Amino acid sequence: MALRARALYDFRSENPGEISLREHEVLSLCSEQDIEGWLEGINSRGDRGLFPASYVQVIRAPEPGPAGDSGPGAPARYANVPPGGFEPLPAPPPDAFQPLLQPQQAPPPSTFQPPGAGFPYGGGALQPSPQQLYGGYQASQGSDDDWDDEWDDSSTVADEPGALGSGAYPDFDGSSSAGAAGRYRLSTRSDLSLGSRGGSAPPQHHPSGAKSSATVSRNLNRFSTFVKSGGEAFVLGEASGFVKDGDKLCVVLGPYGPEWQENPYPFQCTIDDPTKQTKFKGMKSYISYKLVPTHTQVPVHRRYKHFDWLYARLAEKFPVISVPHLPEKQATGRFEEDFISKRRKGLIWWMNHMASHPVLAQCDVFQHFLTCPSSTDEKAWKQGKRKAEKDEMVGANFFLTLSTPPAAALDLQEVESKIDGFKSFTKKMDDSALQLNHTANEFARKQVTGFKKEYQKVGQSFRGLSQAFELDQQAFSVGLNQAIAFTGDAYDAIGELFAEQPRQDLDPVMDLLALYQGHLANFPDIIHVQKGALTKVKESRRHVEEGKMEIQKADGIQDRCNTISFATLAEIHHFHQIRVRDFKSQMQHFLQQQIIFFQKVTQKLEEALHKYDSV
Residue 589 to residues 449, 556, 595: CA-CA distances in angstroms? Predict the structure, then answer.
């Protein structure tokens, strides 16, 4: 028989997938199983969606049967339903719709389901996936590299159970059996009562003498990075999943604070031989790049769309790690030599940063990308691709993989000060990088066009003077005429040197700035996750001071905030390390190229000068 429910209070939907309720309205329920405090149903206007379970009273018509069915033997669950039906309920008190400080209440026994009972995130059949719940990066599918049958999952290769993590990369093992060695369940779930996402539940009355319990509210903006990344769910104690030993990401205390544990197997990867390839009898063309990792010395070939897919997986999996941005796509001119060369240089910088990161370099999906020869073992390639896309250690569960030093090593005020300082640093660096990029681009443009043209004008003028002197027909002036003409040719050559020079010094600087502008664009979201966790800690502390929350619950929130803080500080430390390394190397290269350039200019001028020695 269809289940129905009566609305106890008005509810206004605020997010997609929710429906509004009016007090006393009767709704049809799709299921009596609630989803994290929400029910799905159809209101009197025919709208279908979610609404807070605590805003309705479930009703059900009695089954036909003996008259005694409504007596003492009737199900106890509906003992509170009066024989004559429901009377209009009084309006809720003014604070019923406050999103903060709800009394703790346990779910009804019939709707309780233990975390992980049949579903990876402890929900019922309607539980959303981590990607649906927290969002994620979606790979772009522009005209640069369209998806085709080589990449789509249209084959009949059987899906393997399991998920990729961040294990040691020499062995690509996707085993995910719950009983596998080194695999154990971690959970941050507790009896912490959580506020509902669209509004707060109506107040509940505890027996006299019972200690009240406050809640840490959920963010009203369900599309914020803190929510979509899973940071909020983790801090509030909702994460639960199986973690393999090899998936643990370790943060250690270094001489300058928290940092990622070093990669015990460092490597590099070259990108060479961009070649144009065709398929479908020449109907489709693409550029293939040869990758050779130093730890395998086995070449693999990848297209740009493979890089794009890898970036999407990594950006979704690591919410507190800055995954470097790929070179931009281009709709036209994809097969021109200049564009291919520029993209290859950008991919080399990208690969250098990936291989340099202690976490990203060891990630299974990255190692699969580097080592699996898709052209010769398509089955293994697609199996690894599917496992990466089914990885359960994303969203809130990603934070379960973090192993951090003792929390006593962190002072929240000091952490907040460091984060604020880094936020100011990134803004200033972003502004200066934009200014330098604009200046370098303008200067390069002048060298390619303006300087070349001006030097050639000077050279042409000297040759004009030489031609005029030749009209003298004096034998002793021949040497002078030739020397002046040679000077004109020298200035032409210097103009060509100016036009070619930006490729050697300014272009690499602008490539590096573009890469770091991508990093700087990542950090506002990373900082937002950490700031959101700090806000929850401050809120829980306020509840403790007011005597509305037990100290153990507040400590749990702070411990989980510390985990996010350790990871954020470790990522900031890594960013500064590679920044010093990259800009030192690039500035040395720039100045060396400038010196070589002006040595070439000086050589041309000296050659012209020596022509006058024999005059």
Answer: 24, 50, 10
- Interatomic CA distance for residues 103 and 48, integer angstroms: 29
305 is in an annotated binding site: yes
Q: Is 579 annotated as a binding residue?
A: no
Predicted pLDDT of residue 182: 56
Q: What three-state secondary structure class fits 50?
A: strand
CA distances from residue 133 to 323, 409, 521 in whole angstroms, order as listed: 22, 33, 24
CATH class held by domain 4-59: mainly beta
Task: List, in sequence order, the alpha helices (H) in 47-164.
Answer: 130-134
Q: Domain 412-611 is of which CATH architecture?
A: Up-down Bundle (1.20)
Per-residue pLDDT, 269: 94
Closest by CA position to 445, among listed 491, 510, 513, 492: 510
290 is in an annotated binding site: no
Question: Lowest-confidence range among 76-80, 236-240, 410-414?
Answer: 76-80
Total-model pTM: 0.68
Helix (H) / strand (E) containing 519: helix 506-545
381 and 369 Cβ atoms separated by less than 8 Å:
no
Residues 143, 87: Cα–Cα separation, whole Å: 62
- 241 phi and psi angles, rounded to 5 deg: -175, 170
* Contact call for residues 383 and 156 (beta carbons, < 8 A): no
Q: Delimit the domains of the chain by residue range.
A: 4-59, 259-392, 412-611
Contact 228, 118 (CB under 8 A): no
Rounded to the nearest integer, the mean pLDDT of the chain is: 77
CA distance 272 to 348: 9
Name which residue leads in pLDDT, 551 or 124: 551
Model confidence band, residue 160 (pLDDT cutoffs 50, 70, 90): very low
Question: Which residues are CB-contacts of 106 (< 8 A; sequence separation ≥ 6)?
Answer: 112
Planar angle of CA 279, 280, 286, nearest 5 degrees: 30
State the DSSP code for 202: P
DSSP 446: I
Domain at 259-392, CATH homologous superfamily: Phox-like domain (3.30.1520.10)
Give the contacts of 72 (CB within 8 A, at least 6 positions apart).
Answer: none
pLDDT confidence tier of residue 376, bands split at 50, 70 and 90:
low
Instruction: Kindly report the number of other CB atoms within 10 A of residue 563's CB atom.
Output: 23
Task: Using the predicted structure, report yes or no on whether residue 251 has a pLDDT greater than 70.
Answer: yes
